[in-house]
Each structure stands twice: as C-alpha cells, then as structure tokens.
Amino acid sequence: MNDVSFMELLSRYCADTHLKPKSVDSYASAVRAARRHFGKETYPSMLSREKVCAWRKVALRSRENPRGIVEVSWNNYVRHLAALYNFGIKHQLIMVEENPFNQVRVREPRKPKKTLQPYTIRYVREVMDVCRRFETAQGDPSKLYPAWFWETVIEAFYFTGIRLNQLLHIKAKDVDLKRMILVTSFEGSKTYSESVVPIADGLYPYIAKLMLAAHREGFKREDQLFNVNRFSRRHRRKEMDINQVEHFFKRLSGFCGTRVTPHRFRHTLGTDLMEDPDRNIRVTQMILDHSSMRTTMEYVHPSVDSMRKALNQRRCP
C-alpha cells in the first residue's frame, strides 16, 4: 500500500476522473484549506475523524469566531475531501481504512434564494440605457462600456435564467433566429446536458443585434458569441471569461446600490415562474436545466397574502 500526499492524491484523482476545470478548482480549494489548517507536511493518512471534527469546530463561523466559514462552505470542503479519500482508499493510495470525512457535515440553514426586486431590474435597465445613450451621443466609452453589449448580456440572463458558464460557452452557430432558439452545450451545463432555450420576444431584438454585430466583425461559427473583447477597444483577451463578467456586474452593482449578479437573475426567473398561478413545474425544470424536480421545488415561496388566504378559507367548526 502506498501513502501519497494530499497534492499527489489530488493529482491522481483528477487524472483518473473526468472533471471540468471549475470542478478541479473546487477540489484544489478544499485541499488548500485542509493543508492550511493541518500543515503542508501533513499526509492524508495522518488525519482522523477526531482531528477533522476539531477542525470543524474552529473553522465554522460562530459568535466566538465571526470570521469563520459558513456551513455551505464547510460542507463543500467535506464533500470534495471525502471523495478524494474514497478514491485513495479504493486504490490503496493512502494508509487508512475508514474515511475521516464521513458524516462530518453540518446542517445548513435554509434561506430563501436571493432574487432581484422589480424596482431593481427597472433601475438596472435605466442605468444601462443612460450609458448607451451617452456612448451614442458623445462617442466615448461610458463607465459600463460597451453598454449595448452588456445590455444584451443582462437581458439574456433575465429572459433565460441560464448559468454564467452556459452563456460563456454559447457559440455563433448555437443561435437560430428563424426558430427563435439558442442551444446551450453540455460543456457549460452543470448537468452535463445540451439544452434548447427559447428566445423570448423581449430578448429577440438584443440577440438579433448581437448576431448582426458578430457578422460585421467576421465571427466564425465556432467563435464564442458573448465575447466583449471582440466589440470593445478596452478589452484585449481572446475570449470573455468569468472574471470579466463578474467585474462588470460588480461595477453595475455599485451604480445600482444593491448586489446584481447573473445567478440572482436566475433565481428571480425561477421564483417568478413558480409563483405563476398556472405554473408548470416540468416546464420550469426544463428552462432552468435542473436534473432534479426537488431543486425546482425550492423556488416555491408562497407569499404571505396567499398563506393568509388559505387560513381564511379554513372551515370553522
């Protein structure tokens, strides 16, 4: 039996398992957290359940430790490290018989998904409209340049609810304006599945404008469609990445006075669809690309008025 280090175990696991780059980063982050706490010279075989529980006690946020990590972060660490240990035990890479990360997760507090209020969405659109008008009138970049492009990105998130990674993987060939659909590839999907997303009437003008601009720039079918670098003299990367999108939304949030993110648009769409009296859970599941109906049901948040109505309709003896 071997006895490999954390880094060697991670390397062997990633080589053996087909993972997306983002998933590899998540495993690496968990390993870094463990090595920070236990020391870089610590080997996986040196950990016990007692040591892991002691780490959990000092790592989690509490009144005594307000700068600790939240329950979700701890459970993410545990899930990834447990997978590494299971792999190491199975292939006899580490000198342990039991996984010290089994059953050390904590209960996560259930909180409503964070959504964007209607007035926030209206303000976002007003901010982008002002920036676009400024660029048109002055011929100079605004603070959110190029405004027309970022408007399209915002509306794409608003009308489709797709994940950021899905948006970044859309190619020019994936848009069919005649059929009013766009295809999201399995590379960008969390569920590893290709899906067809309808282009809503409100989104169509923005996508059509983007496709026209892409044609003028000489885009090829395999080129990344949502690529600010091809439409901006300020951006110089080959392809648009997560950092560029997050940087834009951080600046947009500063203008709006509240946090605006792609995922909050997704949560807002899911909540709106599930609050519709004529809601179709299966349709919502397909739109949001959920592999489980249980995930879709998390968007069901009855309003106080609807709960009051149900109580008032109760028969009195």
TrEMBL record:
Does the record carry DNA-binding as a key word? yes
- Alphabetically ordered keywords of this record: DNA integration, DNA recombination, DNA-binding
Q: Which residues form the Core-binding (CB) domain?
A: 4-89
Signal peptide (UniProt feature, chain positions): none
Gene Ontology MF term list = DNA binding
- Source taxon at top rank: Bacteria
The Tyr recombinase domain extends over 114-312
Q: Which GO terms describe its biological process?
A: DNA integration; DNA recombination
SUPFAM superfamilies registered for this protein in UniProt: DNA breaking-rejoining enzymes
Q: Where are the transmembrane segments?
A: none
Q: What Pfam families does the database record attribute to this sequence?
A: Phage_integrase (PF00589)
Q: Spell out the family assignment given in the record's similarity comment.
A: Belongs to the 'phage' integrase family.
This chain belongs to the protein called Site-specific integrase
Which organism is this entry from?
A: Salinicola corii
